[in-house]
């Protein structure tokens, strides 16, 4: 992760303001094990072409149709629009890229916020002009099949959503994006090294073993390249770091949740993982052993997740904490003791909560927050 980017990397990659890495001979047509990639193009131009190819990654036709239906309804159905974009890696990349051209301070890191910036008409234009693929049609020349990639990304996103709900992570929109894009660097490497088969041995090799193979054989790895892409698209630094560090043994916070979700998704798809690594990652993100067991049990089941945020949460972190304790059955005095606040302050926080979300009592406030995925 700490290697230096070679001087041959073009200004396209440099403008990402990312930690530099050393492709070595991995981007000039020959990998470190001497395997030729069949291209004599300059290293920098091949890397730039791979980055640009990811930005043209094909959209699933079904996702496009759902965007069109939601965006062209008499009253644009924002929740459905968010869901359609978040169901598709290519759409999420494009929507975030264009939204981040607006110069929003700190970057746009969630799909609801990106749609608010672009408006439904902007999302419609993006979906309508993107290259596409269908379930049983050609995959547009990608050796790493778009649908296979999408399925794992969505399984990881679903697991991350459940983890975020259990541990009380507030920035659930950013968690959804980090989970969906966590492996985006693999697309770059598969474009640079189309004959590199390590990606297709998930049944017998854990994610960490395959990452080690990338570093040893190619001189780079997909997590570092993914961080470069995230910065190239001006995503918030915390998302870039989560993508970059999700295979690190010291991953914490957002990166640890993505790491845990990634391993849970591999497990649910019958692929190899390290149980010890999964347990340690779950512990670092605040997931108890019992909650981890629930996650592994429920993830493969065909059931609808509780709805997540489809609009920005109007509540402060302190107000969410009060509401979360309330949902656990605590009374005002217990909440005050837990948060080391006075009972009158707890009442004030709840009064503010009611006003912000239009609730008339505690039960309605808790129900509304759960329905919207805030707690």
Task: Describe the structure in your own words.
The protein is an all-alpha fold. It has 3 domains: 1-57 and 142-312, Orthogonal Bundle (Hypothetical protein af1432); 59-133, no CATH class; 317-371, Arc Repressor Mutant, subunit A. Helix content is 58%, strand content 1%. The chain contains 19 helices and 2 strands. The protein has a two-stranded parallel ribbon. Helix 7 (146-167) runs antiparallel to helix 8 and helix 13 (253-268) runs antiparallel to helix 14. The longest helix is centred in the middle third of the chain and has 22 residues, at 146-167. It is globular and about 65 Å long. The two termini are 35 Å apart.
